[in-house]
Amino acid sequence: MILFPFLLTLLAQAETISGVTLPDEIHLASTPLILNGMGVREKYWLDIYVAGLYIPSYSDDPHQIIYENVPKRIHSTFIYPKVTREQLEESLLENLDRNPEIDDTTREQMVLCMNWMEDLLAGDEILFDYDPEQGTTVYVKGEEKGVIPGEEFMQVICWIYVGDGASYLPLKNALLGKDRELIR
After folding, report:
1. Which of 150, 176, 177, 182 shows the shortest CA–CA distance to 164?
2. Can you say whether the dihedral through the CA atoms of 151, 65, 95, 97 is positive or negative?
3. Contacts for 72 with CB less than 8 Å, ≥ 6 apart
4. CB-neighbour burial class of residue 58 (10 A; exposed 0-12, middle 13-18, buried 19+)
5. Considering the chain, what is the average pLDDT of its residues?
6. Structural domains of the chain ordered from first start
7. How far is residue 132's CA from residue 145's CA, in Å, rounded to a whole number?
8. Which residues are registered as beta bridge partners of 139?
9. Hey, how many other C-beta atoms are within 10 angstroms of the C-beta on 174?
10. Do the beta carbons of residue 20 and residue 50 sit within 8 Å?
11. Contact criterion met (CB below 8 Å) for 24 and 14
12. pLDDT tens digits, residue range 155-176?
């Protein structure tokens, strides 16, 4: 009897899209972060991955999300059967071309991050965890690949997802919480 209400509480504290469930709240750098939004990245009419954006408080302001120097996470769970490292690299290069204002140091950091990528299968995850004191820790398939110091790298990652040069507008709107009612 006690277990049933507990399970209902857990179910109420998660969001599911395309079979991927993310919790409504996580902790990063001793800071509680909420799931601001969650959506599917499509390419050529195929669902590739589900992404979630975690920040300290709800916001639909891309500028605030990108530039506020607070802990944040971008969580991607792949749902397509296989995405190769080469496809990830192609996507990264497209994003760099679309955003020529990225400085050379940050471009080098993006290339370093690309070297950490692997072929991904459905269910595999990539996490970008930003801690203002440490930088951005990159996890691929549950393994910490490295930390990129400074805030610029995570700003570029956030820009790719929610900035003016976002790679996919429906995902941008979902991450900004524009596709669901937010309780503030």
Report:
1. 176
2. negative
3. 28, 33, 53, 54, 55, 56, 65, 130, 154, 158
4. middle
5. 89
6. 3-175 (3.50.70.10)
7. 18
8. 127, 144
9. 25
10. yes
11. yes
12. 999 999 999 878 899 999 999 9
Structure tokens at 158: 């956030």
Please name the amino acid found at residue 69: N
**Structure tokens that stand for 145 in this block:** 């690949």
Token pair in block for residue 150: 């400074």
The contacts of residue 44 (CB under 8 Å, 6+ apart) are none
User: Residue type for 58, please?
Assistant: Y
Question: pLDDT for 54-77, tens place per residue?
Answer: 999 999 999 999 999 999 999 999
Long-range contacts of 23-28 (CB under 8 A, 24+ apart): 26/54, 26/73, 28/54, 28/71, 28/72, 28/73, 28/129, 28/130, 28/131
pLDDT at 1: 45
Contact 18, 79 (CB under 8 A): yes
**Predicted pLDDT of residue 181:** 47
Q: What are the angstrom distances between the C-alpha of 27 and each of 33, 54, 71, 131?
A: 6, 10, 9, 11
Residue with tokens 């944040």: 72
Reference 157, options 78, 62, 80; nearest CA is 62
CA–CA distance, 168 with 17 (Å, rounded to integer)? 17
User: How many Å apart are CA 81 and CA 71, to the nearest integer?
Assistant: 31
